[in-house]
Write a structure and sequence with these properties.
CATH superfamily of the largest domain in chain A: P-loop containing nucleotide triphosphate hydrolases
CATH topology of chain B: ABC transporter involved in vitamin B12 uptake, BtuC
Distance between the termini of chain B: 20 Å
Order of helices and strands of chain B: EHHHHHHHHHHHHHE
Largest sheet of chain A: 7 strands, mixed
Structural class of chain B: mainly alpha
CATH class of chain B: Mainly Alpha
Oligomer: heterodimer
Low-confidence stretches of chain B: 354-358
Strand order of the largest sheet of chain B: 1-2
Largest interface: A-B, 37 and 23 residues
Shape of chain A: globular
Mean pLDDT of chain A: 86
Strand content of chain A: 15-25%
Helix content of chain A: 25-40%
Number of strands of chain B: 2
Mean pLDDT of chain B: 90
Number of strands of chain A: 23
Radius of gyration of chain A: 24 Å
Number of helices of chain B: 13
Number of domains of chain B: 1
Number of domains of chain A: 3
Structural class of chain A: alpha/beta
Chain lengths: 520, 358
Amino acid sequence: MNTTPRLELQGMTKIYPSVIANDSIDLRIYPGEIHAVLGENGAGKSTLMKAIYGVVKPDRGRILWNGKPVVIQNPAHARKLGIGMVFQHFSLFETLTVTENIALAMDDSPRLEPLAERIRTVSADYGLPLDPERLVHSLSVGLRQRVEILRCLLQEPKLLIMDEPTSVLTPQAVRTMFDTLRRLAAEGCSILYISHKLDEIMELCHNATIIRGGRVTGYAKPAEESAAGLARMMIGKELPVCSQKRPQISGKTSLTVNNLSTKSADPFGTDLREISFSVSEGEIVGMAGISGNGQQELLYCLSGERLVDDENVITMYDVPVGRLNPDQRRNLGLGFVPEERLGRGAVPGMSLTENTILTAHRHGMVKNGLLRFRRAAEFTRRCITGFSVKCGSIEDPITSLSGGNMQKYITGREILQQPKLLIVSQPTWGVDIGAANVIRQAMIDLRNNGSAVLVVSEELDELFEICDRLIVIAQGRVSPSLQVRETNKEEVGLWMSGMFPGGPKEKTAHSPQEPGSHVC
Amino acid sequence: MFVKIEPRPEPSRVMKYCSPLIAALLMLISGLIIFTLLGKDPMQAFFAFFIEPVHDLYSVGELFIKAAPLMLIGTGLAIGFRANIWNIGAEGQMALGAIFGGYIAIIFHGSSSHFVLPLMILCGAAGGMLWAAIPALLKTVFNANEILVSLMLNYVALLLLELLVHGPLRDPNGYGFPQSVLFSDSAMLPILIKGTRLHLGVLISIIGVGIGWVFLEKSFTGYQLQVAGLAQKAATYAGFDYKKLIWIGMLAGGLAAGIAGVLEIAGPIGQLLPSISPGYGYAAIIVAFVGRLHPGGIFLSSLLMALLYLGGESGQMNLDLPSAVTGIFQGLLLFYLLAADFLIYFRLRITRRQRKEG
């Protein structure tokens, strides 16, 4: 390795009116190094990366690029220096082709045909095959991420920043991406890898800088540390463990979906095809699948935000609910945490207390048509203490919460209503480890008290941790169910790409090698 | 040089309440400039416009008489506006209220029963709601745009009123003038304070604003309307019945406008005329927005708007100003308010040259 760091940060400090996002952070990354930046949500990782990419101006501190101090003005300047960034959320135009999308992001306006040719070569070169003529809306999420990575690779970066890149990938796709990153590193490119997934970091990264509360709490060589050790540095205490205690499944079915098919209203959405499954009291059923495979559409039908033509297709506790609206379904004992927090699960422009009324109003918060704010405030207080929601006061606007805290609040609001059937989409998405455990524990407790829980998540680790059964959704079809104890991530990963009995790619399916031997 | 419009990272909450004040101030400044350009002494114009109309008890009474229909209709409209239900038809709904209420007054002409006035108000309310039900029905059944439907119905309603006053409801002994009989005392709102024209309708309007406040701020239905306005998807997520909310939002406006129509003819006017409102139904839209769709704010902004009406009249009489001056002030106020509101959420940035965006 070279002795001059590719990038060195000295005493980087960024102060926001209410919080010190970065407090004199030092970081050093050498050519060819894969360097992890590890930290919980709100630890200051994103601010730090934005400072490197020129989006945020630091208040104090220096950036040295190849040993020379630089002031990075804006992202275009960062790109000129050779810094590329793959964001967690893609910024692609669905109606344009791969080439057109990449051309849009380039600082000079390139001609399209030679660019397509380059995309073809570079993508083949790195083992990321991609057809440059394809329209983005027809690409899976994994392929879309490929577009974003290629967009950076074409600029021949010296430093590549990856922000939580695996959250949308199947285990198999994660492998491919890791191979690409190792290959890039071997060619001398430095990689800053932001994540809170310890196993990935331990496998991939050479070095790690751990951040907590805006400060560096440690530097480590992930391969030499234990997951528990890294977690301790990251959250400052021992990792809480969920207590499981599996109860007897009572067998009473709380949710059945019987041959549900819909046409998606969105031209780029997914049609649901002949979906059937059920969830019983006292069990947590996980629905795995890469986002965009029909989860959204299915959840709209389950919650009642979209009605289905035949009321018998969906039943809750033997009541046909296909034509009932969400309010009526809640009266039957449904709780629902949607994927979108702001604007759907919570109302922007309202306080926490007012947002509590949104779904919890049936718990004594309305009398003679008038609101009882004291009841709502009481409930809200229970929610923020029970789910450690960090907020100034319950009268603060909901928009003052960070994404993770809002998720905790909404999940807490639904769970505290003691639903008989809880449907949760991405329960711990963007939530830090400590709080994720609180949410998981609450779902387990709910199950142990005899409720039925359906969890839709992209995070296989999470599903394997808390679920009793798994089903997989791919291209609008749902697989038969798997007992968690009798399957493994490889099998579920294959099923996620559609290779399951009755799945869209059933013919290419092969039985996974010895189920159980690859449990991670 | 290029001017770029970009969203502000954090819209100020304080400015949300200050922007009506800024708008009023800018309106005032622009008005004074206009007066100067017209060759009037700006101070004299200012006095005629804003001080003259409130210099004694009688004038203050007049102010409230003008403000009453504005605050009542403004509150009714705000109920719909909060849920993004845009009832622009208050002017027509007011006319329908006047027709229904006036019809009662005419058929009970000469009666001294105490029930005539309450019956007029009930029928007027029904008339306003009936007219508002048309856009509500078309929107819930056919998804027709309520702005267009309610707006066009205004013209229908005003022509209907004119037709009736020229025809069946005309005073048979009125020498052919297009007006109804003068209402009997039993159909007239009693005067509250001697020496003014301040009538019971003003009190009814203020009570109406109070009821609106309870409804909007304290009731569950008001909460649902607010949620639907702020985030339609959240309302669907919670299972609030949007069609029901459309009906409530439209009918609330119709109810308020219908009553306001009755209060006008049973108050200051005292009979049915071809025209019973100087555009209160439209001005109330401005009142609702300047008042931030909040009944307390609407009460204050209705007084400001009433002052503009009176100031316009006083300006015409004392300074020879054209009658369009009231409309100009109303327009300025709304224009500045929309601009100020826009700048709460966006800011302008001047860049020297266009930078290539990456």
